[in-house]
Specification:
Number of helices: 8
Largest sheet: 6 strands, mixed
Helix content: 10-25%
Strand order of the largest sheet: 23-22-27-26-25-24
Distance between the termini: 78 Å
Structural class: alpha+beta
Radius of gyration: 30 Å
Strand content: 25-35%
Length: 422
């Protein structure tokens, strides 16, 4: 134990010396945020690296390595004979490397455990093979963004080799969930001359469709990627049209077609959903188990559909991969009112219930608002007590900001907000 204490004191002393070095040299080789739990000595006084695995049970959450393959001799040797303790650290603790990740949320989920370096080598922990190894010299690596790292002539994602990657054409770029929203989490999208990649795996056509449905790709970019990587698959139409938005396949499954509403190139971005979330039970149901194809129809040219047993609506949502909803309404008693649909008991605006509204008295009116782009027509719902915008009750403060005819506004204020101070 006395010997170990000397080592710790000596390490601390060397750290002070390193921080006192020339700044450029310190950025290259020093450990800016040393983790005292990262390198320790085991009971046999062997230098050991301790790597936590957040996805594992607590009693199995740390793996330990005290030996490594020497790249010169290809023999298993002790870590102390390879690692330079004074400059060893997680790769992304170095500011220059961290900056290249692009997705700053990446490190918040414990993804800093796969890559390490010292003044001589880059090291990788492969969580699948449970291996800790030297991947390259310190002069032969590149942070590519997100999970991706090039070390020597190989590409890795979260420590796992991307087997099919072509190192000469491999590139990455960031993709956000929705365009024009700042400070949101991004996905690092990777391609080479042959493939698109989903983490360390080759992304097939179904994977590609999931990517473009989840993250924002410009329409022309989707068309270009589809033509380059999936021309044959994209040419195949897997569904047969029955009627309206109802489709089937050769296995007897049913699909409802919906439009990617923020896309701009029309038919290229219709998607097909084979499941729906029942808003009454909150369960996910296979359409083939419930749809009456013979009775399926669009309700009065609206966004709502029915098979006389259920009412369906497609909602593009980034919070779930289930885009179809079954509304908790009685089809035989349902009525379309503007963009709303109701029966005797409930009212929905698209897939959101208008809570507290009187279904028997509910109706809509249109107002004309003046804005920079011209005149905007807005639909408001109302019953005998309240006014609604979408599925939300409109407050007095919000209502008075509407730029509408003053006489009409005064009439509505008197009817619905007479108890408010004016």
């Amino acid at each position: 134990m006395q010997h170990l204490g000397c080592r710790v004191i000596f390490f601390c002393f060397l750290s002070l010396l390193v921080y006192g070095c020339d700044k450029n040299d310190a950025d290259k080789i020093s450990n800016p945020k040393p983790n005292i739990d990262l390198l320790t000595y085991n009971k046999n006084n062997e230098l050991t690296i301790n790597i936590p695995e957040p996805s594992q049970p607590i009693d199995e959450s740390i793996v330990h390595f005290s030996k490594i393959i020497d790249p010169k001799t290809q023999k298993l040797v002790f870590l102390k004979d390879i690692i330079d303790v004074d400059t060893f650290a997680k790769l992304y603790h170095f500011p220059a490397d961290k900056l290249k990740i692009i997705d700053t949320n990446y490190l918040k989920n414990g993804h800093d455990i796969y890559y390490y370096k010292d003044k001589n080598y880059v090291y990788i922990f492969d969580p699948q093979k449970k291996q800790f190894f030297i991947a390259s010299s310190i002069a032969d690596y590149e942070v590519l963004g997100g999970c991706y790292l090039r070390a020597a002539n190989k590409i890795y994602c979260d420590g796992v080799e991307v087997i099919q990657a072509d190192i000469n054409s491999f590139t990455t770029e960031s993709k956000s969930l929705i365009p024009s929203i700042k400070d949101q989490q991004v996905y690092i999208f990777a391609t080479d001359k042959n493939n698109i990649y989903w983490f360390s795996k080759n992304c097939n056509y179904d994977c590609f469709k999931n990517l473009v449905n989840t993250y924002y790709f410009a329409p022309e970019e989707i068309a270009k990627l589809k033509a380059k990587y999936f021309a044959k698959q994209a040419a195949i139409i897997p569904y047969s049209h029955i009627k309206d938005i109802l489709y089937t396949d050769n296995k007897g499954n049913y699909y409802l077609q919906y439009f990617r509403y923020w896309r701009t190139d029309d038919l290229k971005h219709y998607n097909y959903e084979s499941r729906a979330r029942d808003l009454k039970t909150n369960k996910i149901i296979e359409l083939k188990d419930i749809i009456n194809a013979k009775e399926f129809h669009q309700i009065n040219n609206s966004i709502y559909y029915s098979d006389n047993q259920h009412i369906y609506i497609a909602v593009e949502s980034f919070a779930t991969d289930i885009q179809m909803r079954i509304l908790d309404l009685e089809p035989q008693k349902s009525q379309i009112i503007g963009n709303y649909i109701k029966d005797d008991n409930r009212i929905y605006f698209i897939d959101r219930e208008v809570l507290g509204a009187n279904a028997q008295e509910f109706n809509v009116f249109l107002i004309q608002e003046t804005c920079d782009e011209g005149t905007l027509t807005t639909e408001l719902g109302y019953d005998n007590n309240k006014i609604y915008y979408g599925n939300h009750e409109l407050s007095y403060d919000d209502f008075v900001q509407l730029d509408i005819d003053e006489k009409f506004k005064a009439f509505l204020i008197k009817k619905y907000f007479s108890n408010k101070k004016q």
